[in-house]
Design goal:
single chain; alpha+beta; 3-stranded mixed β-sheet; 8 strands
Length: about 190
């Protein structure tokens, strides 16, 4: 126990600084653990500002970076606009946590399909292969574990409703859905 009258102004200021620093470190660790566990998942945020060609996205608790190489070529955003992206990387950098987002990663399309097509989320339909040329086209090979479920039809949806939502999110990127086959002679054509 310390009598407060024994503490000087400098000692009290030092104690205050140490306490504030420990609180900031604890906040950083909580944010790091939260987003480290969410790597590979889709997050939604609002465009807060631009630093050069990098977009700073507000995710609520913290900010994230959407660097130019991780943006789709034709993407154009304004401050305050909503943006969806996948958490690509999370790093501790001094007193901050750097969260890097991506809209070009192939897993972004995979996660969009999981959100839009319930059969994929339920594992009735499996995405066997996915190749992407961001901003231009995506080819996705799907297979159904249930013979009564058409894998391609389920992904496209009634009158293309499911695929349209994904194409809209990707700004008109063309998506080819192919029925998977283990035999290259059937799959390639």
């Amino acid at each position: 126990r310390i009598d407060p009258s024994e503490l000087g102004r400098i000692t009290a200021q030092t104690a205050k600084q140490v306490i504030i620093q420990k609180i900031r470190e604890a906040e950083r660790d909580v944010i790091y653990e939260d987003f480290h566990g969410r790597r590979g998942t889709i997050v939604s945020g609002t465009v807060q500002r631009f630093e050069g060609s990098t977009i700073i996205v507000n995710l609520g608790k913290t900010e994230a970076f959407l660097p130019k190489p991780e943006q789709i070529v034709d993407d154009h955003y304004n401050v305050g606009e909503r943006v969806r992206a996948i958490v690509a990387d999370v790093k501790k950098a001094g007193a901050k946590v750097n969260i890097v987002l991506s809209r070009t990663h192939p897993d972004f399309v995979r996660r969009l399909f999981e959100l839009e097509v319930p059969e994929i989320a339920e594992r009735t339909i499996e995405i066997k292969a996915l190749v992407r040329e961001p901003g231009h086209r995506t080819k996705i090979a799907v297979a159904s574990s249930d013979p009564n479920v058409d894998s391609v039809g389920a992904c496209v949806g009634v009158r293309g409703s499911r695929i349209k939502n994904i194409v809209d999110e990707l700004n008109g990127e063309k998506i080819d859905i192919i029925r998977w086959s283990d035999e290259p002679e059937i799959l390639l054509p």
